[in-house]
Design a protein that fits this description.
Blueprint: H1 3-16, H2 19-35, H3 39-71, H4 74-79, H5 85-112, H6 118-140, H7 146-161, H8 163-167, H9 180-189, H10 197-232, H11 251-265, H12 267-293, H13 303-311, H14 313-331, H15 334-338, H16 344-371, H17 378-402, H18 406-413, H19 416-429, H20 443-454, H21 459-488
Helix pairs in contact: 1-5, 2-3, 2-5, 3-5, 3-6, 3-7, 3-9, 3-18, 5-6, 6-7, 6-9, 6-10, 7-12, 9-10, 11-12, 12-14, 12-16, 13-19, 13-20, 14-16, 14-17, 16-17, 17-18, 17-20, 17-21, 19-20, 20-21
């Protein structure tokens, strides 16, 4: 099997799983968002997006693809074929780098026009995306589940993202040049502004060396964790969950016990549960120093919008977890098996909804005092938290309804952050009544109510925003429920 043949196969697979469709939507959203920024900060922010998004795409998408191919037995067939490890790695790297570079080019043309150096642009984007794909492959090869991989991904993504502190002049140090991603920022930035020759030489040379090292590590991981493991286990086995074990407890109690075991045993689920509070602590102690360090934006002036965005972090993260729970349960046949129990599929969804909505409501109540960006009166705060928590069901059902499996779920999950960021940005940057166009995005109305309370608006106005928010979200939940149940049949 040649690299060309493998590339065609990977391209069809990625198209079938919606990678191109998701990236088209992401590209449009990024383009619209960047176009609304002041011209003084637009280029720096564009460079950050061009660095981060292709990198994250390569890292997370290669993980999803490899795990899917592992669990479906595809890698067993490929390892048993004439395909070499080099051909497999080159194909994955080139195909995912192509998607990333294509999306980045579209964003840049939309936001910046043609006034950039295409040579440095393509070189910087291609090398950066390739580096992240290979690092992602090295990270994922040893795992059999997305949960374990996503938890480990944090160990890689956070250090690789540190040069962004230097890019925005939050922390300036020559030590950042030890990170290969500093070379990425230099090379991408060279497409938009004059860059010294020594920095260009450093960036190209360091990225080439970094990709070489990452390739050697990825190839070693392929041989150690995929080829040898496949030889020991010739057929893929999907481990069924213990969801239906212990039926004497009753279906609801069994679900609760199983979920509790998963949350305790699975480090990723523990992280998901704690992540809103970690972000809240970051806001509490990080917003003021960052505001003092950067000069192009006054974060204090946007405290109400920041608070509104942080209010949705519990609903967003718990919705992500609920979506993956439902996708995995559907893939493993749990939903089909539940139809033979008193719980039924609709009872399963009611249970999932009650648990995750309850957790989101309680977690949202903690966020305001935690982030310390403003104070809300008790009654409006309870109402806002209740409406905001409905986003958990929207996010979870969006993933589980639009994605056919966990691979597609990774792609769909890229859109979840925009559902929160876009309406808050519209409130901050767009004047009324035009900003109400963002009301088609469910979080808009609870965010608008939060900012209205902080601005001293009448309770009737706040109540009106929340009422519309309930109607919009309930209607969307009903639509997504029907879609999910139809796909589960």
């Amino acid at each position: 099997m040649s690299v060309t043949t493998m590339l065609r196969w990977d391209g069809r697979l990625q198209f079938r799983y919606g990678f191109y469709a998701v990236y088209a939507v992401v590209t449009v959203l990024f383009g619209l968002g960047l176009s609304g920024l002041p011209a003084s900060v637009r280029t720096d922010t564009l460079v950050m997006v061009l660095f981060a998004d292709p990198g994250f795409l390569g890292f997370y998408f290669v993980g999803a693809l490899v795990l899917f191919e592992k669990n479906e037995g595809v890698l067993h067939a490929l390892v048993s074929s004439p395909l070499s490890a080099d051909e497999y790695l080159v194909s994955k790297t080139l195909s995912l780098s192509f998607i990333a570079t294509l999306g980045a080019l579209a964003i840049t043309l939309f936001v910046h026009g043609t006034g950039f150096q295409p040579g440095w642009f393509l070189l910087g984007l291609g090398l950066t995306a390739g580096l992240f794909v290979l690092v992602g492959f090295s990270a994922v090869a040893r795992f059999d589940s997305l949960n374990a991989y996503f938890l480990t991904a944090i160990v890689y993504i956070v250090p690789l993202s540190l040069p962004l502190l230097d890019h925005f002049a939050v922390v300036e140090s020559p030590l950042f040049y030890l990170f290969p991603t500093q070379a990425s920022l230099v090379l991408i930035g060279a497409a938009f502004e004059a860059t010294p020759a020594w920095e260009l030489a450093y960036a190209v040379g360091y990225l080439v060396v970094g990709i070489g090292v990452a390739y050697v590590l990825a190839r070693r991981a392929f041989e150690r964790h995929i080829v040898r493991e496949t030889e020991r286990k010739p057929t893929a086995e999907v481990e069924r969950g213990s969801l239906l074990s212990g039926r004497s407890l009753g279906p609801v109690a069994t679900l609760a016990v199983t979920d509790l075991r998963n949350w305790v045993r699975d480090p990723l689920l523990l992280y998901i549960g704690l992540s809103p509070f970690l972000l809240g602590l970051l806001a509490r102690f990080g917003v003021a120093p960052i505001d003092a360090a950067v000069e192009f934006v006054d974060l204090a002036a946007y405290s109400p919008e920041l608070l509104a965005a942080f209010l949705f972090t519990p609903a967003g993260t718990l919705g992500f977890a609920a979506g993956f729970f439902m996708l995995e349960d559907r893939e493993q046949g749990v939903l089909r098996a539940l139809r033979a129990t008193p719980l039924t599929g609709r009872g399963y969804l009611a249970y999932r909804g009650a648990v995750f909505l309850g957790l989101a409501f309680v977690s949202t109540l903690v966020m305001v005092p935690l982030v310390d960006l403003g104070t809300l009166p008790l009654v409006p705060y309870l109402a806002i938290a209740l409406v905001a928590s409905l986003h958990t069901a929207v996010a979870g059902l969006l993933m589980a309804s639009l994605a056919a499996n966990t691979v597609e779920g990774v792609g769909v999950s890229k859109l979840l952050g925009f559902l929160i960021i876009a309406p808050v940005a519209a409130i901050a940057l767009v004047t009324e009544p035009l900003q109400f166009l963002a009301g088609v995005l469910p979080p808009f109305w609870a965010a608008k109510a939060t900012i209205a309370v902080l601005d001293g608006a009448a309770l009737a106005t706040v109540g009106g925003y929340l009422a519309v928010g309930v109607v919009v979200q309930v209607a969307l939940i009903a639509l997504l429920l029907r879609l999910f149940l139809r796909r589960a049949d």
